[in-house]
Amino acid sequence: MKIGEAAKESGVNAKLIRHYESIGIIPKAARSEAGYRKYSEADVHILKFVKRSRALGFSMKEIKKLVGLWRNKSRASLEVKNLALKHVEEMENKIQELQDMVRTLRHLAKNCHGDSRPDCPILEDLATSR
Amino acid sequence: MKIGEAAKESGVNAKLIRHYESIGIIPKAARSEAGYRKYSEADVHILKFVKRSRALGFSMKEIKKLVGLWRNKSRASLEVKNLALKHVEEMENKIQELQDMVRTLRHLAKNCHGDSRPDCPILEDLATSR
DNA sequence: CATCCACCTTCCAACGGTTGGAAGGTCAAT
DNA sequence: ATTGACCTTCCAACCGTTGGAAGGTGGATG
Fold this sequence. Notes:
Two copies of one chain form a homodimer.
Chain A: H1 3-10, H2 14-22, E1 30-31, E2 37-38, H3 41-55, H4 60-71, H5 77-110, H6 121-126
Antiparallel strand pairs in A: 1-2
Helix pairs in contact in A: 1-3
Chain A binds a DNA duplex through helix 2.
């Protein structure tokens, strides 16, 4: 399988596949005589694994670990679970941050006329030191 | 006021102040004879405005607009309000995304022993095409 | 006056994750 | 023989921030 087909199969862009290889997320692909990268079904499987991990918000660093754990059949599930829960915690912190911002901005926007007049509580807030 | 003092006053790092100037977020600072940037209280005020806007999650592009609107006394509050509400909407989308990921991962983690055994529903999920 | 230190200057590069382009090689079909 | 679809590598961009290197300036000390 050449990279284009592996891309189609896995749903991961060919460019991105090369990138993942270059940063060591996935193993270096075997090469054909002409120098083309060759992929097996197992390789495609890894790519799908990476894609799914990205969709769950893991960083590339975390994914590197996850791929390692996945391929190591003697891993402890504790390690995976801790990685996942740490990630969940980070996402929850991010959510909290965003919600705070949304709350503040919604409040400010509610008190803003939103017409052709220039006075605007949003700008007033931004311009105020706290 | 030199850049260090302006940084302390505004809470914006000196390095970041230069960066903001270079990308046109804030006007080019006046210079002393030796070439040092000089800042007024008004400049510090702009820096605080930018800082506060960042804290509310606005992108630099949006902040550029906001600074422009703030300094333009004949602006319409509608424009500011729309900018703010568009930003709120984006943040709410992001929150939704994150919540979906958290929900999925929490569910997977709950079914994971989290001990020394290797079998792990989290990895199984990641390895499954959908 | 010399020296020291804290400050300032510019320029260049890195982080993460992805995407784009340029310039060129390879392979199959027309 | 030429086209066109694919592949290769390398380099740069996005965003916002931070870091370092290499050098100039200002004011206080010895």
